Amino acid sequence: MELRQLVTFTKVAELASFSKASVELGYSQSTVTTQIHHLEEELGVTLFDRLYKSIRLTPKGTEFLDYAQKMLALKNEAKEQLLNQSEVSGELRIGTDISLCSSLLPEIFSKYHAKYPNVKFNVETGDTKTLFQLLNKNEVDFIFTLDRRHYDSNILIAFEKKMPMVFFCSAQNPLAEKTVSIKELLSADFVLTKHSLSYREHLEIFLASKLQEIHPYLETNNMELIQQIIELGEHISFLPKCALDKKIKLGKIKEIDVPDCQIYVWLQLLSHQKKSFSLPMKMLVNMLKS
């Protein structure tokens, strides 16, 4: 069993396609098919059901996927541990939007700096259009986005993770941790991001499909301000759960269960397809994956 076979297997499982996996991995489709066939022969099980123009994991394939992901994560961890930290130096140029700067990225930057103190971060902020312009001009190495799932032939997805959006309120709000319908919820006072942030757009597109709409009493793109307002009153908002985790754990805000409104965004670390990865770039990707 080879590590490259595990990489190929996890990519095929992720994309549910041999052809798409071959494009992302830079292999011919026949190479991908052969690697999966050899893996199945060695394990003595069928990993994928080959249906008409589609594939899906078998129960044994689903079971093995967990092991494959753990083995690849362990490989990345071993590489990090064996690498002399002082050898990793240079600069990482990151582009991102301001909402990520106030939620997820401080923890990521702090963890990376603890591992590789000789790497300097240079962070640029902007909207999605501006970030992709910076990437295409090679003015940043990576962009972090928390948005719809971006895919483009010129873009390399170095890391991605699906993230739920949630409605939330203060711990004292009668709706805290209750289950309600989206129709019931819309009568409440909302504090939302402006239309320039995609979180608002995702919600309004969903509501339009249900012939409903929302009219917040306050709009701002400052996610920290939104959370402070929610903590102090009986208002409701809608943001990625990952941006709220700390305050949810502290009990300052509570999630509202709205089963008939399930919306997701993707946390993605993106680079240009033709970008040559420096050692600091590789270490950031390894850290996120492990």
From TrEMBL:
PROSITE patterns: HTH_LYSR. InterPro entries: LysR_HTH_N, LysR_subst-bd, WH-like_DNA-bd_sf, WH_DNA-bd_sf. GO terms for molecular function: DNA-binding transcription factor activity; transcription cis-regulatory region binding. Residues 1-58 form the HTH lysR-type domain. Keywords: DNA-binding, Transcription, Transcription regulation. Belongs to the LysR transcriptional regulatory family. This is LysR family transcriptional regulator. It comes from Aminipila terrae.
